[in-house]
Write a structure and sequence with these properties.
The protein is mainly alpha-helical. It has a two-stranded antiparallel sheet. The longest helix has 47 residues. It starts with 7 loop residues before the first strand and ends with a helix.
Length: 122
Amino acid sequence: MAENGARVAKADDGDRIDWVAAEQSPEFKELIAKKRRFVLPATIFFLAWYFGFILLAGYAPSVMGTSIYEGFTLGYALALSQFLMVWVLSYLYLKRADRDFDPLAEKAAQVAFDAGQKGANR
């Protein structure tokens, strides 16, 4: 038990969880890979959108000041699109989490719990 003490932590309900087994499980690795495949491109896209807006505002004020409807300028439209983009990306992440991430997280947690129980019974 002493050698396994660094690997196994006690959970709130008295059960044991093997965190190393959780990290090394195929379910956890798949979870991390799937999250990375979503989060990295989404972050790059959002940052490109955001910094593109900043660059346009700083270096093309005449373009940003172009009226698109009765005094509503392209600059206002692009600024408001930042809020819309956050909501869309958040919605897409939540849908992906419900469909892909959460089931994988539950499987990885179960693997860690099962490994911890095996280690505690030794």
